[in-house]
Automatic annotation (TrEMBL):
Periplasmic binding protein domain sequence ranges: 60-313
The organism of origin for this protein: Streptomyces himalayensis subsp. himalayensis
Leader sequence segment: 1-30
GO CC terms: outer membrane-bounded periplasmic space
Name recorded for this polypeptide: Substrate-binding domain-containing protein
Similarity field: Belongs to the bacterial solute-binding protein 2 family.
Amino acid sequence: MSRTGFPLAALSLASASVLLVAGCSQSSNASKDSGDSAASASAATAEKPAPFSKGTVKVALVRQSGAGDYFEQWGNGAKAQAKALGIDLTVYDAQADNAKQATDLSAAINSGAQAIIVDHGFPATIQPEIDKAVKKGIKVVVYDVETTNDKVVSTKQDDASMASAVLDVMAKELGKDQKVGYVNVAGYAALDKRDSVWKKTTDTNGWKQAFKVGKVTDSTATDNVPLVSAALTQHSDVTGIFAPYDELAKGTVLAVQNKKLADKVKVFGADVSNADIQAMTEKGSPWVATAGTDPSAVGAAVVRTTALELAGQLNTTSVEFPAVAITQDFLRKNKIENMDQLREALPALNLAKASAADWIPNVAH
């Protein structure tokens, strides 16, 4: 949903659901990590302000991760940027356990961290701990989490622009008055924003939504295959399906292929990762377009945002990262097989200007 992805791609929870949209490799305990050796950082050109000028700065990253590789890349970007800044980063991962994330957040508060980054999570569970952190004077930056505390810095993908980018491609590919399918899950903030754009787009183009299915689990892609397959059994005449989170899109692609409809039904997703690129470019893939941010770049940008907040230089409580449309044709024509090649072909993905400062070494991937 991001990965989200939400890619939400990786997504923050807005209901009582306990699982996250997007994915990563997971670790159940707090851990230290020095960063991603594959990343490089441009040199800073100015002296560091306080508190960075006074020695090591302690930051905690409290995560809530799910299935897929979006979160792994996001975490690598965050770790690499923290390393470049000289941040002592402690990482906690609740692995889709809301109660554990609250416990992790409490541990982070008591660890002496000067700032805490909360990466995804269920608001009702973690809001009390966020409030405690703020009261203790700890800087809190959240990513794809809905929060009611106006002293918290909110960062997120621009989910409306993400949906608009890929749905513009879908409209050009399908045309007006088509019968379409929809694979999505209500209750996730990022997916709900993408849903709003979907509804407007279907109205504008006169599309008839033949079905809506979808669920989020710890195996989202696999568990959505039978749902989409069943829908396609009844509605094999749809010309396109929108699945606005890459794990949902992967399941949709498999269902379309299993029903032998890949030459008739086009899939439009959201978020982008190495696995997504492979799924889009493989022979016979019906996944023709997605839209997303680079999860590694987003992770790094969230850490830079935190650094600016610690230095008193952020001057905003909300930072959004724009998405770009990525088509199957573009990937194939440019022989793009992974995120490194995509970053080279689309430099805007690096978010180099997001939360930048001349004293911050900017990590590129």
